[in-house]
Specification:
Number of helices: 0
Distance between the termini: 40 Å
Strand content: over 45%
Oligomer: single chain
C-alpha cells in the first residue's frame, strides 16, 4: 500500500514557475509508476507527466511537454513536478497518482491518489 500527499501548489503569474511535491509512504514506492494528473472545474482529468519506478523513463502530456519536468527521489520517497512557463490554462487541481506495472495515461488505471493541490495561474 502507498499513501500520497501533494504539496507546493499556489498562485503564480503567467510565465512563472512552481514545483509540486508528492511524498509517498511504503517501501515499494520505487516499483510503482508515478504520475501527475490535473483537473480543472467541469473538465476531464488530464494526464500531465509520469515516471517509471526503476529506470526513470518519463512521459509527458502534449500540453506541457517542454515546460514541465517530472523527477523522483527514491531515497526521500518523493516525486516532483517542476512547472515552468505557466499559463492560465494550467490552472487546475494537481493530483499525484501511482500504479503497479506499465505506464498509463488513463486515470482509471491508477490505484493510489493524493488529495490534490491547487495551482492557479493569473492572466
Amino acid at each position: 500500500q502507498v499513501q500520497l500527499v501533494e504539496s507546493g501548489g499556489g498562485l503564480v503569474q503567467t510565465g512563472g514557475s512552481l514545483r509540486l511535491s508528492c511524498a509517498a509512504s511504503g517501501r515499494t514506492f520505487s516499483s510503482y509508476f508515478m504520475a501527475w494528473f490535473r483537473q480543472a472545474p467541469g473538465k476531464e482529468r488530464e494526464f500531465v507527466a509520469g515516471i517509471t519506478g526503476s529506470r526513470f523513463f518519463t512521459l509527458y502530456g502534449d500540453s506541457v511537454k517542454g515546460r514541465f519536468f517530472i523527477a523522483r527521489d527514491a531515497a526521500k520517497n518523493t516525486v516532483y513536478l517542476q512547472m515552468n512557463s505557466l499559463k492560465p490554462e494550467d490552472t487546475a487541481i494537481y493530483y499525484c497518482a501511482a500504479r503497479i506495472g506499465d505506464s498509463s495515461r488513463a486515470p482509471e488505471q491508477y490505484i493510489y491518489w493524493g488529495q490534490g493541490t491547487q495551482v492557479t495561474v493569473s492572466s
